Amino acid sequence: MVGEIPEITGFIRTCPPFDKAEEEALTKLVRHLSVSYHKSGDTIDLAGGDPDFYLIRSGSVEIRASDNQLVDRLSAGDGFGHACELASGNRHHLATVLEDCLLYVIPPAVIGDLRQTDANVDSFFKREKLAHCGDREVDTDRDYQLGQRVGDIVTRAAVCAAQDMSVAAAARLMTRERVSSVVVVDSERLVGVVTDRDLRTRVLAANLPPATQLHRVMTPEPQFVTSASRLHDAQLTMMSANIHHLPVIEIDAGVQRPVGMLTTNDLLLAQNSQPLFLIKSINRCRDAAAVARVAEKLPALIQKLIKADARVEDIGRIITSVTDAMTTQLLRLAEQQLGQAPVPYAWLAFGSQGRQDQMLGADQDNALLIDDSAGPGDDDYFTELARFVCDGLHRCGIRYCPGDIMATTPRWRQSLSQWQQYFARWIDEPSAKALMHACIFFDLRHIFGAKDLTQRLTEFVHTRARKNSIFLAGMTENALGHRPPLGFFKTFVLERDGNHEPVLDLKHRGTIPIVDIARIYALSAGIDAVNTMDRLRGLEDHNELSAGDIHNLLDAHEFIARIRIENQGEQLAQGREVTNSLNPKMLSPLVRHQLKEAFAVVQSCQQGMKMGFGGGAL
Amino acid sequence: MAVLYSLRHRALATLRRYRARGTPFEALYDAPPPPLRAAFDDLRFVVLDAEMSGLNPTRHSLLSLGWVVIERGRIVGDSGRHFLIHADTRVGESTKIHGLRDSAIAGAASVARVLALLAAQAQGAVLVFHHAALDIAFIQRAAVQTVRCPLLAVYLDTMEIEKRRLRRQGKSASLRLKLCRDRYGLPATAQHNALSDAYATAELFLAQVAYLGDRGRLRLRDLYPVGVS
C-alpha cells in the first residue's frame, strides 16, 4: 500500500534537476503532483500570476513569451511554466502543445519549497533563466524555416498507385518516377504507403510473388500531414513515428486526397535553406542601405556553416551566390533610379566571385561590358550605374578593389570590341602586367544584363587562348611565382604578417597555385568552366592532367580551403580581422603533416605544368 | 409502467440499503451515485485494475488490486494504492488457518479490508476499468462473499470508449491496453502490476477524454457509463 505511483517517481528521478534531489524532497514533489493530458493544438496559459510548473512526460510543446516571440520547443524531460523566467524579464507566456502531451503538473509552492531546501534545484532554475536568453536568436531562425508550410516545400505531385496494383508494377513505377515511395490510393483516397524498404522486407525477404497486390504489403492507414501543416509538425510526426516518408494530403469533401510525399531529405533541405532566405530577403530590398543590412547577416551564416562542417566548396558557392544576389539587386535598384540603360550591357564578375569560391573578406573584382552601339554620351549613365553598385557592394562588406579592378574604373567599363582587344593583347603579347591581368580576367562570369554579350566575349577569349603556347607558357611562368610554402626539407616557409608574426599565407601560397594550375589546364583544354573544382573535374575527360593528379589537387584544394575558412571562422568569432594568414603553431601535428602533404601535391603538379607548357626555371 | 418501475426500483434500493447496513458499504449505499448530467471536471474517478489467478470468477481469485484517482481532470499524484490480497477469498477461515503470519510476511491484506478501502474511495465517484466486465465480476463476487452485498457504483470502461471511437472512425484495431495507449502517443510502461496498469489506464482515459470533445462541456453520459451495479 503506497501513495506513490512508480511510473511517475521513476520518470522524475531521470529529469534534471530532480535527478539529484533528496528522496524526501522527491516524495513531497510526487505527493503534490498531478498528471494531465493535452491534445496537439491545446494551449496552456502561463500568463497568470503564479503558474504551475509543468514537466513534460511525453509529447512536445512550444513556448512563447509575452511578445509572442518563440522562446523554446520542449519535449520529454523538459519543464516550463513557473519560475522559468527569461533573462529579458519576459516570462513564459503561453505553451502550445505541438504533439499530444502528458504533463506532470507541480504547484508553484512545491517548487518554491524545493528551491529553498535544495541548492541544486535552485541553481538549475537560475541557470534556466540564462539559457533561454542565448537560445532565442537561434530558435527564431529555426522557427523561420520550420514554420514554413508543408505545401511550400513539397513540389512534386504524389506518385500514386491503385491498391490492386502488383508490387512489380509499383517497383517499375517507382523506378520510372525516381521516387523511393508510392502512395497507395483507393479511388483517390489515401489508404497506404509503400516504400523501397517495404519492397525489400515485405516482398523480397518474405518471398512474395511479383504479382502480389500492393494492399497486402503496404503500411495501411499511414501517418500523414496536410499541405497546410507546419514543417515542424511534420518533423515531429516523422521523428516520433520513426518514419522517413510522410504522405501530404489535402482534405477534399471529406476525402483524404494525397498531393505529395514529404521525405526526411526534404526537411533537411528546408532547414539548410538559410542562404536562400538571405537571397530572398536581398531580392526584396528597396534600397542599397537595406541590402547592406541584410549583408550583415552573412558572416554569422558562414560561421554556422563552418560549424556544421559544410564543404568549403559549398560555402564558397554560397558566399558567391549571396554576393551575386547583392550585385543583381543593386543593379536593379540602380536601373530603377537611373532609368533603363541606353544600350544593352553586361555586368561581369572576376576573380573569386567569378570562380564562385569567394571567402569572407574578399574584395570586389567586377567590370562592365557594353554593347558596341553605345555612343560617347552613354558613358555618363554607366559611370553612375557602376558607382551605385560598387559603393553599394562596399557597404555590404565587399571592399573596393585595391587594384581598381572595378566597373568604376573607366578602363574596365568598355565596349565588347574594346574588351576583345584587351584579351587579344594579353594573349598575344604576354608581358608580366598582361599575365597578371589575364589571371584575373580569365576567371570571368556573367552576373547581370545581356548574356549574349558575355558569351561573345568568352567565346572570343577561348578560341584565342587555346593552343597559344607562348601565352600558356607565360601563364605557367607567372603561376610558378606562387610557390607552395615548403622548404627543401619539407619545412614550412613562413612570411611575416603585419605584426611581424611568422605566418603561412594560405591564399597566395595554397589556394592560388591550385587555381592557377586549374586555369591554365582549362584554357589549354578549352574548358569554359570558371570554378576551380569544375575546371579540375572537367579535365578528367581530357588527357592534359592525370586522374590521380586531378583527385589529389581536388583534395588538396578542399583541405587547404577548409583550414583557411576554419581559421577565418575563428578570427570572426574572436572579433579579429579576417585574413588568410595562419600561424602553423596553431595546427595540430597531424593537420600540419596533412597540410604539408597538400602543399607537396601542388608542388609536384606545378612541376608537371612546367614540363607541359614550358616557362621559367623551377 | 414507469411509475411501477420507479416504485420497484426504489423498493429494491431501500432493500439493498437495508442489507448494507453495518457493512463497510453502508456509506456507499446511502450516498446517491453521480448523476449522468454531472460535468466531467466535477467528477471524481477511481481508475482500477485487478490481477487474478485466472479468468473464471467462480474458480479463481483476486490476487491484487491497484487504483489511482482522477480529480478535476488530472491524475492525483499521491492517490496510487496497491494491495496484495490473500489468495484465499474466504477471509474468515483463511485467518484461522494461516494466522496473520503468512499475510504479514507477504504484505498482503484481506480482500474485505481492501474492498472496504475501495468503498471509501468509490463513494460519490465513478469507477474506471480497462475491460470492466472481468474485473467487476471478480470484485462483485468477492464483495458478495465477504460483505454479503455488491459494491454499488457507476463504472466506465476505457475499452468501450475506444471501441466506440474506432467504430465511429470506421476502423477496427486491437483494444489491448498497450495498443490503445500507443494510438494516443502515450509512453511505454515498464512494469506490470495492478497499480501500474491502473495508472496506465488512467492516462489512457485522460487521453480519450481529450479526444471526446471540449472537456469543459463533457458530461458523465458522454463517457458511456456501463451502469450501476
UniProtKB/TrEMBL annotation, chain A:
Keywords recorded for this protein, A-Z: CBS domain, Repeat
PROSITE patterns reported in the protein's UniProt record: CBS, CNMP_BINDING_3
Signal peptide extent: none
Entries under Gene3D superfamilies matching the protein: CBS-domain, Jelly Rolls
Location of the CBS domain: 154-210, 218-278
Residue ranges of domain Cyclic nucleotide-binding in the record: 17-97
Superkingdom as given in the UniProt entry: Bacteria
Database matches in Pfam families: CBS, cNMP_binding, DUF294, DUF294_C
Keyword Repeat listed: yes
GO MF annotation terms: [protein-PII] uridylyltransferase activity
CDD domains recorded: CAP_ED, NT_GlnE_GlnD_like
SMART domains tied to this protein: CBS
Name of the protein this chain belongs to: CBS domain-containing protein
Organism, as annotated: Exilibacterium tricleocarpae
TrEMBL record, chain B:
Alphabetic keyword roster: Exonuclease, Hydrolase, Nuclease
A Pfam family it matches: RNase_T
One term of GO molecular function: 3'-5' exonuclease activity
Domain of life, source organism: Bacteria
GO terms for cellular component: cytosol
UniProt record, GO biological process: DNA metabolic process
InterPro entries cross-referenced by the UniProt entry: Ribonucl_H, RNaseH-like_sf, RNaseH_sf
Domain Exonuclease: 44-214
This protein's name: 3'-5' exonuclease
Species of origin: Exilibacterium tricleocarpae
